[in-house]
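Work Package 4 report. The design task specified in the project plan requires that, given a folded chain encoded as structure tokens, an amino acid be chosen for each position. We show below one input record used in the internal validation round.
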């Protein structure tokens, strides 16, 4: 199952990611190796119009534009949000993806 959630926070992007990782751990997620099966996977896709690359975190998520399972639910909740890297709305990105 895939879903998208939108919220407001006073946390920084790094703190937000750390909170998501804490939730994963609390729900039993283990990371034995890259690509291992997982019970839950929470990602920080966008953080307003922030573009950020620091060790362990890139915002917007570097591969979200290529993933149907990200774009489809995101287009349902925030179709008018703009990807700060491409300048395209989520609806435009989804439409381009869905047309492939």
């Amino acid at each position: 199952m895939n879903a998208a959630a939108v919220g407001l926070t006073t946390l920084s992007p790094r703190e937000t990611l750390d909170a998501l990782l804490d939730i994963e751990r609390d729900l039993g997620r283990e990371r034995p190796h890259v690509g291992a099966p997982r019970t839950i996977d929470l990602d920080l896709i966008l953080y307003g119009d922030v573009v950020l690359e620091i060790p362990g975190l890139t915002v917007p998520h570097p591969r979200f534009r290529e993933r149907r399972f990200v774009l489809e639910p995101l287009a349902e909740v925030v179709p008018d949000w703009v990807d700060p890297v491409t300048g395209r709305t989520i609806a435009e990105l989804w439409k381009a993806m869905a047309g492939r």
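The chain has three helices and two strands. Validation will be extended to a larger panel in the next phase.
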